[in-house]
Amino acid sequence: MAASRASRRIQSAGQRIARQTECESGTPNKKEDHVAKAKQIIIKVEDRPGTVAASIRSLSEAGVNIVSVLAWNPQGTLQLVTDNPRKAAKALAAANVAFTEAAAEIVELPNKPGALLAYLEKLAKKGVNLRSICATTSKTGRKAVVVWTAES
Fold first, then answer.
1. Which CATH architecture describes the domain 2-150?
2. At a CB cut-off of 8 Å and minimum separation 6, what does 60 contact?
3. How far apart are CA 89 and CA 135, in angstroms?
4. Helix axis angle, 85-94 to 51-61, nearest 10°
5. CA 37/CA 136 separation, integer angstroms
6. Local confidence band at 32 (pLDDT 50, 70, 90 cut-offs)
7. Whole-prediction pTM
8. Which helix (H) or strand (E) holds 14?
């Protein structure tokens, strides 16, 4: 139950971001994938308990919702997409959390076998070299939310 609520919150935030930004073509087109531009926040964290929580505390205190998170070690890289990138940057700066920003894309795909593959093949044909990608859905969700970045 909690997982489906979380997925609905992520999808809702993704839809909110999509409404706040333009599609690649400028207008929604049912035949094309609706891609929302987003700003990704990248934070380097130490490999020890509590560093991720400490890094994002200021976002919670500022009322910033995290739409997507991807992290891995040993590099200690934390990638976030929020519902309000300006507010997030301001909160992190005020808390003295070092970060960088990068362009990201958010797309909703049907939650069915082969949908992600078809989308990734489209990106490959366009010559997009992915730098990072994460996706999520709930077991009963009709859509999957994919966040990706590419080399510039």
1. 2-Layer Sandwich (3.30)
2. none
3. 23
4. 120
5. 18
6. low
7. 0.71
8. helix 2-20
pLDDT reported for residue 5: 47
Backbone angles phi, psi at 4, to 5 degrees: -70, -35
Buried b (16+ CB within 10 A) or exposed e, 81-119: bbbbbeebbebbeeeebebeeeebbbbbbebeeebbeeb
* Cβ-based neighbour number of residue 46 at 10 Å: 12
Which pLDDT does position 48 carry in this prediction? 84
pLDDT of residue 82 exceeding 60:
yes
Q: Which two tokens stand for residue 60?
A: 């919670």
Rounded to whole angstroms, the Cα distance separating 52 from 148 reads 21
E strand spans, the chain: 35-44, 66-72, 77-82, 100-110, 130-136, 143-150
Which tokens sit at 104? 């990201």
Cα 132 to Cα 135: distance, rounded to the nearest angstrom: 11
Domain extent listing, the chain: 2-150
Could you give the CA distance from residue 40 to residue 88 in angstroms, rounded to a whole number? 10
For residue 74, whether the previous peptide bond is cis, meaning omega lies within 30 degrees of 0, is yes
Residue pair 150/133 in contact (Cβ under 8 Å)? The answer is no
